[in-house]
Specification:
eleven-stranded mixed sheet; globular; about 230 residues; alpha+beta; 4 helices
Amino acid sequence: MQVVYEDNHIIVVDKRPGEIVQGDKTGDEPLVETVRRYIKEKYQKPGNVFCGVVHRLDRPTSGLVVFAKTSKALARLNEMFRRGEVRKTYRAITRSIPTPPEGRLVHYLTSVERNNKTYVSATPKAGAKEAALTYRVIGHSDRYHLIEVNLETGRKHQIRAQLSAIGCPIRGDLKYGDKRSNPDGSISLQAYRIEFEHPVSHNHIDLTASLPDDPLWKAFTPDNNQ
């Protein structure tokens, strides 16, 4: 587990693809339990250790996840996420390039629990939730394109579903229309950067994740992805 930031109230870790943030029917150990054990061992805390889940990432996605170490931080962070006061930037690799290469997408999403999939509509419909994001192409390799995405809303599978709806499924994301899976079962989507006001100190927190351990991500050099 890679800790990116930690203080008395919050801890931010860089999630690997395949890890789950909270427990599910698989029975695999969730990241929240790994973080709780880390805190207990590092600080030799007796009894139960508080570790609150603030937000989630899909299992095949990598990147930054924030956990609260105190109930005060959890309550305040939950409210900040609800109000859209947390800026989340993602990076995605696609085989197709979006047209135009920079823009804003607004769709209406319906999540179906039976097959764990989100469906996209261009117009409002009963039960659907509005989803908005902005995107821009920031890099190219021989066969792929690197897209930076900023979420305006936080819907289930939002980036995956919306990019797929414009003909740009994320590399490795078979569920949303890509041709081939990635060797490690991941999808090429990373929660790359997160910015927010610290829930207790009110300092500005601005964190970025390291590149995934995959040669394709490293093919997008710094000169090409700004």
